[in-house]
Structures are given as structure tokens and as C-alpha cells.
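Here is a typical protein record:
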Amino acid sequence: MFVNGPGLLDGLPRNENATEVYQRNMRAQYPDAENPFMAAKKAFEEKIKGAVIINATPENALGYEKDTWIAGDAILFDGYTCDEVDRLAEGAAE
């Protein structure tokens, strides 16, 4: 899935369809975790150990901290790797 990264910061509305896909995948990746979103965050932080992470959650996102959601537009790619999607996105921007 390719999402509008700063969509939440830009105040875009919750994208229910993209949120459902994202949340379903997180729960599938971490089926034994009490909170799959926090488990994903911990795994990501381990992967990028040493990098600076800034929590930029705006006020209008309060209440969703434990239930991560997608704001704004999103594109679901079926059958592509992350690298292929990145190349497609870079090509579209040119």
C-alpha cells in the first residue's frame, strides 16, 4: 500500500478502506501480540536502531494512538514488492 505519509499531519480525513486493509494486515503479522500496532512499532524501531524518531501525532488524532489509521488517499498494489512500488512511485513523480 502506498499512502499519503503526511496526510494525518495535513488534517486529511480517516480513510476507512485503507485503514481496514492496514489494520487487518498488522493483526495478521502479529497474531499473538496483545497490541499488534505496538508490536509493529517495536519491530520497526529495532530495525532502524539509532535513528531519530519524532512523534508528530496531531491533536485531532487523539483517541487513535493504539489503533493506527490511514488519513487521506492510499493506493493498494497487489503482487508488487516494496522496491517495485517505490520505483513506480518515483517514475510517476517525474
